[in-house]
Amino acid sequence: MGDIEANGVPIPQSPMSKEVIDLARRHTFYTNPNGDRFNLVALHRMNMHYLRGRLLDSAAGVFAKEAMTDADSKELTSLMSDYCTAVRDRELMRDLAARSWRTNPFHLKSDPDRPLETLLLSSLKARGIHPAPIISIKEDETLPSLPGGPWDMPSAIKATRERYAWAIVGGVVLIVPMVMMVLLEGRTANLVIASVSTVMFALAAAYSAPTKLPVELMGVTAAYAAVLVVFVGGTTGAGG
Questions:
Q1: Rounded to an integer, what distance in angstroms lies between the CA atom of residue 174 and that of residue 199?
Q2: Nearest to 108 by CA among 94, 119, 99, 92
Q3: What SS3 class is residue 167?
Q4: How confident is the model at residue 2 (pLDDT cuts 50, 70, 90)?
Q5: pLDDT tens for residues 132-187?
Q6: Taking a C-beta distance cutoff of 8 angstroms, is the pair 135, 26 a contact?
Q7: d(Cα 222, Cα 215) in Å, to the nearest integer?
Q8: Cα(8)–Cα(28) distance, rounded to whole angstroms?
Q9: Cα of 139 vs its chain's centroid, Å
Q10: E strands, the chain, where?
Q11: Contact 40/47 with Cβ under 8 angstroms?
């Protein structure tokens, strides 16, 4: 990567510092009590940091020249496209890790049931690249953070807990109003319970939904209200 020139004066581009490479390496190739691990996500996050540096270098050249050429535009467009692709790829990595950490294709393990991955990691050590001790959670909190965080394993554990929590919440928000409708007889009471429950559900969905798109919020609220309305009709009809 050559230097940028502004008015004949070279502007050195920012290389990837040794500190960043060492940090990424510790997160990428490490060993824990279960064996060696190679985290491709850490490699990707290091590359994201490098792309950000390239973008800033390109911007520095434009600012220093106080002019922007077609070549500058093409370079910025290419770098920004690469960076956006890296950000989207990072989301894919996070989604796959949340689905199953055990089968995560971006986390290579030297386990007995993974002979091919073990062979790959052994080839690194044969070339003099040895794993570092695993970074503890406490130590990681003191280290600089690479872009594309947080790390996937804690996120995957959190996602699993959230799935169970939302499953419980989903059952509760339906069962509680239904039980109240059965215990509190009368069409008016049932309609009040259904209305209040629907409004509370809509507010909770608006607060906690990941996308918060109006159409999606209206859809889930309408589905919830439909269930309660059907139950109201059934209970009031049965009651005479």
A1: 13
A2: 119
A3: helix
A4: very low
A5: 999 988 888 888 888 988 877 766 666 677 778 888 888 888 899 888 888 887 88
A6: yes
A7: 10
A8: 40
A9: 22
A10: 4-6, 9-11, 29-32, 35-39, 107-109, 132-133
A11: no
pLDDT in tens, 26-79: 999 999 999 999 999 999 999 999 999 999 999 999 999 999 999 999 999 999
Strands 29-32 and 132-133: parallel
Whether the CB-CB separation of 108 and 117 falls below 8 Å is answered with: yes
Which residue is it, tokens 């973008």?
A: 55
End-to-end CA distance of the chain: 82
Residue with tokens 């796959």: 96
* Closest of 44, 43, 50, 39 to residue 156, by C-alpha: 39
The domains of the chain are located at 4-149, 155-238
Please state, in angstroms and rounded to a whole number, the distance separating the CA atoms of residues 77 and 81. 6
Q: Which two tokens stand for residue 179?
A: 């039980």
| Alpha carbons 132 and 116: distance in angstroms, whole number | 21
Residues 6+ apart with CB under 8 A from 211: none
Q: Pick the closest to residue 190 from 207, 177, 201 (CA basis).
A: 177
For residue 108, which phi and psi values (nearest 5 degrees)?
A: -85, 140
76 and 58 Cβ atoms separated by less than 8 Å: yes
Which pTM value belongs to this model? 0.67
